[in-house]
Amino acid sequence: MPAASFIRWFRRTALAEAISYLLLLGVAMPLKYVWGMPLAVKIIGGIHGGLFVVFCLTLALAMRAGRWSLVRAAGLFVASLVPMLPFWLDARLRTWESEAPQED
Q1: CA angle at residue 20 from 39 to 3, to 5 degrees?
Q2: Cα(50)–Cα(56) distance, rounded to whole angstroms?
């Protein structure tokens, strides 16, 4: 599979994980702590946790396929911990996707 495909999957996973993080922080947490509805955190938190695991796996695959440095991968990992930053980095990921090696 071409490196660009792995990077594309990573981009999609990163965006899904970022959306789930915002839902967890902006919807589920207020529902739990303001309105006493903890079920939202259990549901959205579980989804977010699963997406975070997939994010880490696809990051490792994209790093290997795209021949990214450990510094780049670590920066992307840290960026996933900051709300909204993955959306800002998506443009850069698109560039890296287009620059990825084309061989299998």
Answers
A1: 145
A2: 10
- The C-alpha atoms of residue 91 and residue 47 are separated, in whole angstroms, by 25
Whole-angstrom Cα distance, residue 86 to residue 29? Answer: 20
Determine the pLDDT at residue 103: 65
**Can you give the pTM of this predicted structure?**
0.91
CB burial readout 24-35, b (16+ within 10 A) else e: beeebeebbeee
Instruction: Report the helix count and the strand count for the chain, using DSSP H and E.
Output: 5, 0
- Interatomic CA distance for residues 56 and 49, integer angstroms: 11
**pLDDT tens digits for 73-91?**
999 999 999 999 999 999 9
